[in-house]
Amino acid sequence: MTLSIAHLGPPGTYAEQAALLYFNWLTKTRDQRAILCPYPSIAQTLRAVAQGQAKLAVVPVENSIEGSVTMTLDALWQLDGLQVQLAIVMPIVHTLISCAQSIEDIKTVYSHPQALAQCQGWLDRVIPKVQLIPKNSTTEALLQLEQDPTAAAISSERAAQLYNLPVLATGINDYPENYTRFWVMSKNYIPLARPSHLERRTHTSLAFSTPANVPGALAKPLQVFASIGINLSKIESRPTKRSLGEYLFFIDLEADSSEAQVESALAEITTYTEVLKSFGSYNVLPIQELVVGC
Ligand SMILES: O=C(O)C(=O)C[C@]1(C(=O)O)C=C[C@@H](O)C=C1
Q1: What are phi and psi of 290, to 5 degrees?
Q2: Which of 32, 130, 155, 275 holds its CA 20 to 30 A away from the CA of 23?
Q3: pTM as predicted
């Protein structure tokens, strides 16, 4: 069976790069045939897996400079049954791509909001007057650049090569240590999808809403994990979109949900939550480990 891997397109995105490295790892270490399927948005990428059009999706979930990729969190809250198979951490080096003769000629800069935000200091310093235009991905505007020499896009060096476009500046992210964590997600358990030498899964991700906006609504479920010594590696709130000031919470636990104590903690927090979604347990790997594994 060929595994279809959905990712954010058009070709050249960072998500495609992460998906490609994962694809190489699957084909080389698992002898598993796979194909990459680009989708126009992160929400559509995840929906493709939820609706069975693709078996796996590789989606960005968090960046070291800009924090959570909110499109991913919001789509995950709306969809049912998606499980994280693996988390991959990949370095991100942004470049400014344009057909302009010089940086001073640029009037508009297109990119994914995450990429624009990761470079906001550089943009303010070097081309403060440009108009920033958010796009669904870092590569969505690349085909427009040849027609408009006053336009630029923030994307990767790899994308510039793929589209045969000039790079005017490189390493423009505000902090050189720029990493994005991607989740490899599926609807059903796919045994081949994760490295088998890692015995224990190190992280579990959950999202929940609380029954009422009252004192302790968040503290009570968190206390369940604290009381058995489980560390929280991340907490993020997102608006429920039902009413102003009402939130749902995404948390990452340093724990494996198949361990009895964790399993009972997860059962216990259902008494303090309104809707609880578990995205399962998984390992977090730097991208080099997938490349070395080939
Ligand atoms: O637009 C892309 O190239 C993406 O893969 C999306 C995305 C993101 O949403 O975080 C991925 C990595 C970088 O952090 C910037 C953009």
Answers
A1: -75, -35
A2: 155
A3: 0.96
